[in-house]
Amino acid sequence: MAGNSFGTLFRLTTFGESHGRALGGIVDGCPAGITLDVEAIQKELNRRKPGQSAIVTQRKEPDTVEIYSGLFEGKTTGTPIGFAIHNTNQKSKDYSHIKDSYRPSHADYVYDKKYGFRDYRGGGRSSARETASRVVAGAIAKQMLSEIKITAYVSQVGDLKMDKNYAELDFNEIENNPVRCPDPKMAAEMERYIKSIKKEGDTIGGVISCVAQNVPIGLGEPVFDKLHAELGKAMLSINAVKGFEYGSGFAGVRMKGSAHNDQYNADGSTKTNLSGGVQGGISNGMDIYFNVAFKPVATVLQGYETITKDGEMVQTQGKGRHDPCVVPRAVPIVEAMTALVLADYSLLARTNRI
Amino acid sequence: MAGNSFGTLFRLTTFGESHGRALGGIVDGCPAGITLDVEAIQKELNRRKPGQSAIVTQRKEPDTVEIYSGLFEGKTTGTPIGFAIHNTNQKSKDYSHIKDSYRPSHADYVYDKKYGFRDYRGGGRSSARETASRVVAGAIAKQMLSEIKITAYVSQVGDLKMDKNYAELDFNEIENNPVRCPDPKMAAEMERYIKSIKKEGDTIGGVISCVAQNVPIGLGEPVFDKLHAELGKAMLSINAVKGFEYGSGFAGVRMKGSAHNDQYNADGSTKTNLSGGVQGGISNGMDIYFNVAFKPVATVLQGYETITKDGEMVQTQGKGRHDPCVVPRAVPIVEAMTALVLADYSLLARTNRI
Amino acid sequence: MAGNSFGTLFRLTTFGESHGRALGGIVDGCPAGITLDVEAIQKELNRRKPGQSAIVTQRKEPDTVEIYSGLFEGKTTGTPIGFAIHNTNQKSKDYSHIKDSYRPSHADYVYDKKYGFRDYRGGGRSSARETASRVVAGAIAKQMLSEIKITAYVSQVGDLKMDKNYAELDFNEIENNPVRCPDPKMAAEMERYIKSIKKEGDTIGGVISCVAQNVPIGLGEPVFDKLHAELGKAMLSINAVKGFEYGSGFAGVRMKGSAHNDQYNADGSTKTNLSGGVQGGISNGMDIYFNVAFKPVATVLQGYETITKDGEMVQTQGKGRHDPCVVPRAVPIVEAMTALVLADYSLLARTNRI
Amino acid sequence: MAGNSFGTLFRLTTFGESHGRALGGIVDGCPAGITLDVEAIQKELNRRKPGQSAIVTQRKEPDTVEIYSGLFEGKTTGTPIGFAIHNTNQKSKDYSHIKDSYRPSHADYVYDKKYGFRDYRGGGRSSARETASRVVAGAIAKQMLSEIKITAYVSQVGDLKMDKNYAELDFNEIENNPVRCPDPKMAAEMERYIKSIKKEGDTIGGVISCVAQNVPIGLGEPVFDKLHAELGKAMLSINAVKGFEYGSGFAGVRMKGSAHNDQYNADGSTKTNLSGGVQGGISNGMDIYFNVAFKPVATVLQGYETITKDGEMVQTQGKGRHDPCVVPRAVPIVEAMTALVLADYSLLARTNRI
């Protein structure tokens, strides 16, 4: 169990390297009887796909998912859903320059130390290409959770931070711009900024915010498997993520309890929602919302000094087709991981009571 | 599996309510042959104990751990270590006022909805008293990890934020003040502030920073079980935690890749450490450091309005013996959860290679 | 995870050595709202207790279970149920003779090789005393499964084999004799035989048969976690078990398919039940029945030659208070493990469909 | 987690229906650095393949495995090994006769009850075709366990039982006959018998014996995860298996302890091996051997009465291409499952001691 599975009952296991023959996965534990829209899965995958706009990597990969099992006459059968995405545009030669040296702030060095050697082509298993499998599984989870609405969007790129609360935003705007920021003016600024960063051969970080609405009360286990703890792990498992906060988050530490407590309405809803929809690790029926911090992509198209396998310092140069900013393409990944957590915890919650 | 276990190979399972007969746990998977200092375990527990200073809850509980199994002639035997802490100072009557109404931002409401009823005494299982078991297990893990040094401390209380990097601090100062802040001047300010908050019958949030030093290269699994993802889940599973960031964290999103990348020295160490000791989910031998955000404790000793089980609005008043600020007592808990993750991932890392 | 947990959703974790301070366990995942009869748990434990008749070990241990958590006002709360049984009659000196030498067909040798040393007192963790915790958890599981009737009994001791099918037996007779064989005449023969074996200072093997009635259709997962596979593992995990067969078992290999197939009645029940209540790994609503083979207890009160830690041959003599035949006391253990499997699989089966 | 994974550290997850597009799996946790012979994997698969002799099903399927990931320059990388076997010879029309009625002693009925409907083509997920994925994974495990020799063979078909101990057999004979029985005379008898059974349109059961030699001391966890318990579960999870016994097995119940105990030699080996290589759940370095009972295949090519989905009795007729006796093709499956258990427990055993 080298950590390539996620979830207890609704469980995804993935495989695949950036430049191998295929990547894919198995969703085990998906309940029987869900009418599955395979095109909707492909659509989610297209949101993550390279080459979709000028501000993302220009690699051309169709990323077509093939579903091998677990579906019969359009419905899930309760058996595992196996799927694969075949790689078609591997240019392994692009990566010969990193074969023997370690890219700074990449996983190259630790892979070599941990495993004794590594598949260096495109970062191998450490490539964010792996997340394509998560998007497929997340799209299945979303269809299982048809009542719940999960929406992620870019809320910050570098210093450009959208200070609006999610309730003030029009989520319909998210897919109307390549940044996936629901505020059109801010989106335009962000787009310009990312383009300028790209021109420098540099990269920049960002924040994705996510909201899950209409989540039933009672998801989450009280102690180690608190709902927000699992969401946190899910997000932190995405490449380049450096932080996670939900509800009031880091800002909440500055508040007094008297101001931070969410007062109840008679129906059990709360007047405020600094709790972020989770109390004691369990969903309380209010919106769940959280922020995910992404560092700048490590691959910069600039010269840099680094070390070789043999500990020699070398001067080298970043190349290849890379994202100047990871957050636009990471939006569907954040949604997918959220869906996986909620699907799994929905099933777990079926066993609370006799 | 209602979420009361943590870890894959070095695995802690806990039980116990705030006002039940006892709480405790089982550590399964602790390797044989560790000479275990039981007093050192009790010492860690004493750091978490109520009543230890004027700025924490004044409950008096000895919190004495009894070890039932897994030790023979002073050494771990490789069999499960069962332990219990008997409750001695339960004043269940203190809690009759919350029997039928829900305290805002507490778990009362969601427990009732999830399970149909709840053990309301002292918050039952949702009480942070459960973390005593984590401290016991963490103290065992620390002894297993004798080479690794894990240090947590309070870096922020409300708006009082210590802006020093951990490298500038004298960790020996941490236990010299009741706040557990290594900067004596800041500690004194924080102490005064917590006392004033307490006088108001209010509470305040805070941040705990943690550093793990001398961690071997290679801990962490590349995809879902990234080392920092598991650390994040571990921290977010602690009561009152709202956020987690490691290395450059949320500040890192404002940086460019060219500035954020940690350049290598010839020996594989890095000149900077914005990665926070983890690359691609795997420890790289540099210090691991992270921040954990705690919200203000929800129990305020003030009047408030809330709802009853039957949906009626009632006016009530917080009472009992509570912490005005949770972070001083949470320091050993953060260390314990860190130790549990590192112990587990150390064992997992033994299986990387043939 | 050194294998001291059993079950996925209804999960038991145990601790404790034969001569440690206490043994016990944690049941995690027991649904909330079960009215738990604690005396019924103790009663099951008494069925397993030493000293209950002339044909079992004459050790005197009260084996009183204390429940520490997870119960409130007589009902399960959905939180983990921690429990302990304190050891009161350890005579560790009895075991000094095995400190340095290995008893044949015991776990002494492999423990030393695996862990580097062992707690030799009473066999330490390898003692069947550990199964007391299973009986406690099984008794909880039984109460959860109030509709299902689980009955185990002794069907063979040495060559004395009861050739009746379970349907011909009066289960009310089981507890009327110390052997726990439902056929009074055969029980008397078995009792006499065990007594003669005991007089020789020898031991003898036996078979326990078990029937689970009124099991709902649909328990069991199709591939690796087939219901009978988990039952098999559960049984094989009991000390001294050498074999497991269900339905037609080993005798079924001699049959032709045309004779072995269970023909359907119109209501979905089957005219015969060679399937043993499980088809394709899933319960079909018919009675589940199986046999469990127990070897003769390894400790014989006779002289024998063996080796020491240092590889020297020594002449020694078995002593202490031991069972001449393990099956009478193992009947409640077989029932407990069956209950644990069915409780767990009942919860898993709640997640089959959307 | 609907039970499609096997193992803790060396973990196989499978997918695929009999008549879907493909079946396959993911091996997670395979250590890095194993030089993997892909042809050897295909060879194992060929041993399980339909159409290989006159006494097995005459379906023609190439069963070619494609490996998608986890290999680089001929060696395992420590990342998951994804693989698929594409179905090429599905004749779904063959199965239209079972669409609405339930074949006796098949999984048809319970699938419908559990999931609400089923993929009836070729038995869907309940088909033994799923075991092809196990053979692939087992072949990888075998290569990891290069020191250990795992040998399975047919020891009984119907009443034809080979009474020789494995030590008296020449394992080189196993692959020399289509039955996979190492005794050529008995093999010829069995072959004739299976042919006569086939001519009747009937089926017959059998027993596979398996021996694992050169297993290191110390594999197996003492309580629930005893080595033989996991082996038992592994075997019982194979389609059509009805029983498992190891070492002295069911015959051992008739023995006295004084005769059953395996006396030690000075080097820790034992003079006899009724323990079957496992004591207290842990391997002791002696040969591990066990028997696995298979029922007769349920599909008989004869007329039979059964019920439809709507509970009507119908007269129908078995057809299609089926095995008259499952054991010859199940030999590589038994070996594969044995290898999976030993690989997993080898990795677990790395964590016994500090």
Please provide a brief summary of the model.
Chain A has 354 residues and is α+β, with helices and mostly antiparallel strands. The first copy, chain A, has helices spanning 38-48, 108-115, 131-144, 184-199, 227-236, 257-260, 327-348; strands spanning 5-6, 11-15, 22-28, 65-67, 71-72, 75-76, 81-86, 149-157, 160-161, 206-213, 241-246, 278-279, 282-283, 288-294, 303-307, 313-317. Chain A contains 7 helices and 16 strands.
Descriptive overview:
The first copy, chain A, is an alpha+beta fold and 354 residues long. The longest helix of chain A has 22 residues, at 327-348. Chain A has 7 helices and 16 strands. A 5-stranded antiparallel beta sheet of chain A has the order 1-2-3-7-4, with helices on one face. The radius of gyration of chain A is 21 Å and the shape is globular. Chain A has one domain (5-351): Chorismate synthase, AroC fold, CATH 3.60.150.10. In chain A, β1 (5-6) and β2 form a beta hairpin. In chain A, 24% of the residues lie in helices and 21% in strands. In chain A, α1 (38-48) packs across α7 (327-348) and α5 packs antiparallel against α7 (327-348). Chain A binds chain C through residues 8-9, 29, 31-34, 76, 78-79, 144, 222, 347-348, 350-354, and chain C through 8-9, 29, 31-34, 76, 78-79, 144, 222, 347-348, 350-354.
